Amino acid sequence: MKLTCEKTILADAVAVCIHAVSAKSSIAALEGLLITTGEHSASLCGYNFKTAIQRSFDATIVEAGTAVISARILSDIVRRLPNDTVEISVDEKMMATIRSGATEFNLMATPAREYPDLPDVDAVAGASLQSKVLRDLLLDEPHVREHFSKIQECA
After folding, report:
1. pLDDT per residue as tens digits for the range 63-117
2. What residue ranges do the domains of the chain occupy?
3. Which neighbouring-strand residues pair with 66?
4. How far is residue 89's CA from residue 57's CA, in Å, rounded to a whole number?
5. Best exposed site among 19, 26, 76, 103 by fewest CB in 10 Å?
6. What is the pLDDT of residues 1-14, one digit of tens each?
7. How far apart are alpha carbons 34 and 29 in whole angstroms?
8. How far is 98 from 105, CA to CA, in rounded Å?
9. How far is CA 23 from CA 13, 66, 98, 115, in A?
10. CA–CA separation, 7 and 66 (whole Å)
């Protein structure tokens, strides 16, 4: 796997997904972020059996693949990188290299097969509401009104 992306985009994706990562788990892969590459984008996923957060971001994909990298270490590295462009590569021996300018970090990755599958979310179980309808429903409930008194319409 090999990808190149902007540091700020990667840092934002890591910051969002890390909230669903287990600090300590009996499954080591859950302490990491699953990196998956598509044709023109990549995605990060954090999961702790209760919450899953997945975030896609624009990237130049040189070689497709998936791997799990320690969330804490990846977050620390990305924050400290000097340049605007970041290159992440993982070889067949699961050695991850994170490079930006002259700075390079090497760490062991975990095979994606060790990352648990996310549960399938049944599309029938979802709902779609216009923002105004949801806002009105929430604000009609007295016990909810005080918590959401500053809801602004987004659409």
Report:
1. 999 999 999 999 999 999 988 899 999 999 999 999 999 999 999 999 999 999 8
2. 2-114, 121-155
3. 36
4. 16
5. 26
6. 999 999 999 999 99
7. 8
8. 5
9. 18, 21, 22, 15
10. 19
- Which residues, in sequence order, are CB contacts of 128 under 8 Å at separation 6+? none
Confidence of residue 145 (pLDDT cuts 50, 70, 90): low
For the chain, helix (H) and strand (E) counts, in that order, are 4, 9
CATH topology for 2-114? DNA Polymerase III; Chain A, domain 2 (3.10.150)
Cα–Cα distance measured from residue 35 to residue 81, given in angstroms and rounded to the nearest whole number:
19
Q: Which CA distances in Å does 51 have to 7, 101, 110?
A: 25, 35, 20
Distance CA 50, CA 87 (A): 31
Distance, in Å, from the CA atom of 24 to the CA atom of 52, rounded to the nearest integer, reads: 16
